[in-house]
Amino acid sequence: MEKVDVIVVGAGVVGLAIARELALERGREVLILEQHESFGSETSSRNSEVIHAGIYYRPGSLKAKTCVEGNKLLYQYCAARAIAHKRTTKLIVATEPDEVAKLESIRANSRSNGCETLRWMTGTEVRQLEPEITCRAALFSPATGVVDSHSFMLSLLGDAEAAGSTAVFCTEVTGGEIDSSSPVKIEAQSGGETTQLDANCVINAAGLHALSLAGRIRGINLNNLPKMQFSKGNYFGITGRPKISRLIYPVPVTGGLGVHLTLDLAGRVRFGPDNEQVSEIDYRVNPGRATEFYRSVSY
After folding, report:
1. DSSP 256
2. Is the peptide bond preceding residue 287 cis, with omega within 30 degrees of 0?
3. Residue 297, CB-side half-sphere exposure with 13 Å CA sphere
4. In principle, which of 87, 140, 158, 269 could form an S-S bond with 145, CB 3.0–4.6 Å?
């Protein structure tokens, strides 16, 4: 049985960031196990690629603290390594009278979180800034941006490997066992062959598969695992290039931030994500939701 110091399961952005930190900053021997042929093949490559400012999280929460700090660190990291990114800024727009008051609450929350100051804008000021946007009022976020997620993950992997980490792809962790008196045992399968590994530490960064993986590790109390409920976000693009230069978000809705307009680094526009409850992982876009998307972005 092979022995390793640390195993990180999952080569998405979270797993790669953890592997980099452990190898580069802590001097640990790290083995990254990924079931797909390459890194970032699921959730990490299916998102808006937005660098968030930490506006909405509950003040004092871990999410609020890490997002505000991470916003600054990510801009610094990308600049130091020439990773494509852009501080696009963002508008949170109120299109209905009752939403205007919600903007005040959002601004107060962001102030409590220590975000860069959100600037209040009238509907007229917004039209001067973005002529194609109509609203009653808005908040301007100077710290929001976008990043090339693939290049970012490639850099994290490069840092981890340069510090001695090893990434093994096409390898699925199928089970294992934890015992307080011995190393963690991991079973990994690749090419029809199963390998047994002993590790001092195992990081479960398997994304949407993390719960099912935890359930296959003997010794874990299944009663402590939360119930999985999948929520899928669909995205739709548009033809042409509307003259919009920053991200446009609505006032948040129940279950998410609402369908918003994002830009990639090439200036292409897409709308999303919505919130579709599904029973299993399914990355296909539901074309039947296009009508609701159109209603959401029209005013």
Report:
1. B
2. no
3. 23
4. 87
Instruction: Retrieve residue 279's tokens.
Output: 């029973």
* C-alpha distances in Å from residue 208, one per residue of 30, 45, 229, 262: 22, 13, 10, 24
Q: How confident is the model over 205-256, as pLDDT tens digits?
A: 999 999 999 999 999 999 999 998 999 999 998 887 778 999 999 998 877 7
Category of 116 on φ-ψ map: left (φ > 0), alpha (ψ -120 to 50) or beta? beta
Rg (CA), the chain: 21
Give the model confidence (pLDDT) of 264-290 as tens digits.
998 889 998 988 889 999 999 988 888
Q: Where are the alpha helices (DSSP H) in 22-145?
A: 62-80, 97-113, 123-129
Tokens of 140: 């301007």
Query: Of 37, 41, 44, whose CA–CA distance to 13 is shortest?
Result: 44
Nearest CA-CA partner of 147 in 233, 262, 248:
262
The structure's pTM equals 0.93
